[in-house]
Amino acid sequence: MSQLVDSEETTPFSTATNWINYRWRSIRVMYFTMFLSSVGFTIVITSLWPYLQKIDDSANASFLGWVVAAYSLGQMVASPIFGLWSNYRPRREPLVCSIFINLSANIYYAYAYLPKTNNKFHILMSRAFVGFGAGNVAVVRSYVAGATSLKERTSAMANMSACQALGFILGPALQACLSFIGEYGFTVKFIDLQLNMYTAPALLAAAFGLINILLVLLVLREHRVDDHGRHIRSINYTSEGIEETEETMDQVAVLTSNVLFFIVMFIFAVFETIATPLSMDMFAWTRKEAVLYNGIIICGIGFESILVFLVVKVASQRIGDRPVLLAGLAIIFCGFFILLPWGNHYPKIQWADLKNNSLVSQISEATKASNNSLEPTGCPYEQTWCQYTPAIHLAQYISSDILIGVGYPACNVMSYTLYSKILGPRPQGVYMGWLTASGSGARTLGPVFVSQVYTILGPRWAFSLICSMVLGAIILLSCAYHRLIAFSVRYGRTVE
């Protein structure tokens, strides 16, 4: 059984102030870990599709869905494993192991062009391993939940989400900057590396991983407090196991939270997967333009998200976590509803370019590669819906981005803040692992779903189905509203 102890009895620090400072220093290392994990994912996301097209001609939009899903599938498998590990051993162990896997996988991604065949499958495998390393998100969330009091929890979770959003900003921004290296860049002969706008971001993510490992080893220490902020003995690696209590958590609330988190992550996975192909189809952007412009847009969404997190911290204190979550879902619904095609304007069809360039077959492959004007742009003729589905206007696209950039961060932080409060004082590694696995499952299915539906049926069907899913989440939250309360509130220890 975990017990309350004096800070002097369990720490080498002479004052409570020192203990608090060291506790928050370790929490900030977790913020930074979440930030670098986010950078490691987003730094390649806008260039993933053009990179696939460049190194393997057989890759199509459907395969892109599988590549994006591979990251989340790896994370889904790893999250419960790392979460369970963190319940019984020092958290530095699963963190260092996972970050090292992530680092190695990014190097693998940078060299995916080397094999003579099946390059797209090497991209797929590298992203799966990057995702497996990102399973440490469960460890990060469980640590922050266990190291903060109930009053500190929402603010700490919002700060962690803000760091994650900052990673979402910096990742695409770095990718956009590195896009000026160009598609061909230069070759580092002694390590047989092509350094270009596709490989440089992955290598930079690997360097960030090395910094993260050093911080975890040198700065992180174990800390745990109860709901009132009193220090309690860490049970992560003692023989006492999981804290025993006669008071049980509300399993319906736990399940509902997992379902809501699944839906929130599913719809965002759809959004981030479809952004590049959608913009290339609707606005006839080239590969380089799509990487640059979407990088700028996602960067803007990231800045917007940080402002949302600041507002969420204040709003949740005044009106509660559940109303903020409900409002976030309503805003996301509006964002996808706006994205539905309408009007008489149709997208530019790519086959027109191919027809006009029928003599290109007589030009050497080298000349093709050096002449960017020969890159086909517009909606591929293989997607038959391009011929009868109205184009999505740039104003629609940007308006949708703005709304989703408000709704998603609010839903994201409120989902796992509520979840951590529902779980109560027990070690949360395994449960946070399941929540992360739920989100990863959504990020696995979301890209596959949207790449298939979008390729075959077009944006009207894809976004209509997403609107229906968000509406279902709103109904579910409304039905379970009275059960989504903190563990200590449920048993009358504190007042909501």
TrEMBL record:
Cited PROSITE patterns: MFS (PS50850)
Membrane topology: Multi-pass membrane protein
InterPro entries per UniProt: MFS (IPR011701), MFS_dom (IPR020846), MFS_Domain-Containing_Protein (IPR051068), MFS_trans_sf (IPR036259), Tet-R_TetA/multi-R_MdtG-like (IPR001958)
Gene3D superfamilies for this protein: MFS general substrate transporter like domains
Sequence intervals crossing the membrane: 29-51, 63-83, 95-112, 124-144, 165-186, 198-220, 252-271, 291-312, 324-343, 461-481
Domain of life, source organism: Eukaryota
A Pfam family that the UniProt record links to this protein: MFS_1
MF (Gene Ontology): transmembrane transporter activity
Cellular location(s): Endomembrane system
Listed GO CC annotations: endomembrane system; lysosomal membrane
CDD domains: MFS_MFSD8
Domain Major facilitator superfamily (MFS) profile: residue ranges: 26-490
Keyword entries, A-Z: Membrane, Transmembrane, Transmembrane helix, Transport
Protein name (record): Major facilitator superfamily domain containing 8
Species for this entry: Seriola dumerili (Greater amberjack)
